Amino acid sequence: MTMKVRDVMTSSPVVVDYSQPVSHAAQAMRELDVGSLFVLRDGLLHGLVTDRDLVVRGVAEGIGPDEPVGPLSSEDLVGVSADDDTADALRLMRDQAVRRLPVLDDGQVTGVISLGDLAVAADADSPLAQVRQASPNT
Amino acid sequence: MRTKIRDIMTAPPVCMAPAEAVSAAAAAMRDMGIGCVLIQDDGRLLGILTDRDITVRVLAEELDPSATRVGAVCSSELVLLDPDDDVADAVALIEQRAIRRIPVVRDATPVGVVSLGDLSLETI
Predict the structure, then answer these.
(1) Residues of B with CB below 8 A from A134's CB?
(2) Which residues of A are less than 8 Å from B52 in CB distance?
(3) What is the mean pLDDT of the segment spanning B23-43?
């Protein structure tokens, strides 16, 4: 039986606006226990920003907590549909060298699927799954 | 078959003094393509600082990364491995502690880091 993206994905992805300061994005990541946020610009999906982006594209480039987060995001996102097989999602992650993909429905972001989600679904006792399920640091 | 920590660890580790700025750690993470730096004083390991730590402990707190010391925001690392430990020991620690990186230390001196990514490369 093939598993579908909809069986594994997280719905209600967390978003941040392009113009919000880096500190707000960081606070959202901390409080909501996530490592990435979708970035909206004028209400439309602009891209994705991760906790690592805030550091290597932000802090390392002298961009501080008060500056807008939008320019730090990755654009041109590759997405999957909720009806896709999880095997296709995993292959896409490997091809794109990414750990998470937006789930799109007619251009609207309906969720997110991560490598961790796939690991938990495949083997809840695996090391990656254990890490995925543990509480994040604060 | 690579079964020892020294065979799979990433070495040498990037180390910084506790008084160095978080902004310098961020630059090292960017330049070296790594997710953590080790904090070292007089050759002795004091702690570990990850990219996630910078996000939640510095940026979320609206601190100035260039004015914040890495020693002030790093984790005082208690989980360690020896280069002669088995890969299975790393897997067990990562599972039990739900962590993704473990410093490798020989005679209290940091010599490398083992990450979940290093383990994944060995098993995929």
Answers:
(1) 98
(2) 35, 51-52, 136-137
(3) 95
Nearest Cα to Cα of residue A58 among A109, A24, A108? A24
pLDDT of B104 reads 96
Do residues A40 and A48 make contact, with C-beta atoms less than 8 angstroms apart?
no
Locate all alpha helices (DSSP H) within B15-112, ordered by sequence.
22-32, 51-53, 70-73, 87-97
Contact B95 A127 (CB under 8 A): yes
User: Which chain B positions have a beta carbon within 8 Å of A133's beta carbon?
Assistant: 98
Q: Are strands B15-16 and B36-41 parallel, antiparallel or unpaired?
A: parallel
Cα dist from A25 to A37, A53, A94, A98, B35, whole Å: 8, 11, 26, 20, 19
ipTM > 0.90 for the complex? no
Interface of B with A (CB under 8 A): 22-23, 26-27, 29-31, 35, 51-56, 58-60, 62-66, 75, 91, 94-95, 98-100, 116, 119-120
- Among candidate residues A75, A20, A16, A25, the one with its CA nearest the CA of residue A47: A75
pLDDT in tens, A29-65: 999 888 889 898 887 788 999 999 999 999 999 999 9
Q: What mean pLDDT do residues B39-61 have?
A: 95
What does the DSSP 8-state code read for residue A135? P
- Label residue A136 by pLDDT band (50, 70, 90): low
Q: What are the angstrom distances between the C-alpha of A59 and each of A42, B33, B112?
A: 25, 14, 25
Q: HSE of B121 in the Cβ direction (CA atoms, 13 Å)?
A: 10
How much is the mean pLDDT over chain B?
92
Considering only CB atoms, which chain B residues are within 8 Å of A122? none
Tokens of B81: 């491995």
